[in-house]
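Handout, page 2. Input:
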Amino acid sequence: MIKGEVDAGQASMKNIRNTSEQQLEMLYDLPLQFAAERDLSKLFNLVLDSIIRIIPGAKRGALLVVDRNRGKLAVRASIPKDDPPISRTLIKRAAAEGKGFIWSAEGEVDFSQSMKALSISTGMYCPLMWQGEVMGVICVDTPENTKSFSDDDLKFLIAVAHYAAAALSNSELQADIEFKNKVQERLLTNFSPKLRSKLVDQARVGALVPGGERSQVTLLMSDIRGFTNTTADMDVQHVVDMLNEYFTELVHAIFENDGTIDKFIGDAILAIFGSPDKDVDQQLKAVKAAIAMQEAVVRVNEKRKARGDVCCDLGIGLHYGEVLHGFIGAEDRLEFTVIGDTVNRTARFCDGARKGMVVISPELHEFVKGKFDVKELTFPTKHEGDFKGYEVEWDDDGIAI
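Output:
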């Protein structure tokens, strides 16, 4: 053998060793890269670039991922970027068969339009498989008739596809978890942050399910006095802005005292204390919340008056009694609510509270007797005769006496 042939053979063996070492090094590094990089599109481009560089003869490539909303393959990385070498026939074959293969134009009779347009000489196609599910396809090819791919090249590409599928599955799982957490957080905005965190933890383990129970709770209803007349000449957006300004402070006062918002009814708020978690101090906290709400109205009015904006006054009624309360609906559409005559009676005490007043029922008064100065009062109702209640004494500075 002449020296030139020996040198050529040695160079060829050296190139094979270098390629194998590069492929092995890439397979070692991939799990670390996928774990560290959250932006999969960026990482897929880096992976595809490395594959083209490492596999001898590979000139072009693409990585496609199944769009979960549409159920179709979408390009997430390609070389060249603006003109991805995609043969729909071969990509669909890889996805349908669920296994990688080497395709060659040599001996092929039935060429698709995309194959002809791309001038594919030979290519490798591998599905991104994870737990039996096709999550995408990765492919590389060359238009050069003198190049071909080996079984070792295919094994390498299959290994890379497996890592990419695992990373994609993990990314989708994390996205699902984050989305569900955000949805749960939005669904639970009626609860105080402390209670919301607890309910989210219950939802994560499937413990937040439809169901109700009967128990004794304290209800609070607030209503802006003269709201219809006050806002009659106001622009709709100004009315919304005004309500948001008041409600922000009112809700804060309720949450600070471990209350839960059942619902907003126009300019009114219905809040619950002692549900969904039992609270031995619910009665005291409810009255404290009502006082804090009236204090908040005083503060907001001072700001609005200084700006020349319309101001409002609040009437608040509270009652203690039995209700049916809990998460009503289906597992994917839960709504917390309370049902019972106690709700209607709370509304009556709210109706009996004039602006700046906190009126509590005799039932609630039994629990907070001696903790607040109160004044007994009687007020009429439309259909239930006169109601007896107690006004928590209130001075002009919004402080309970």
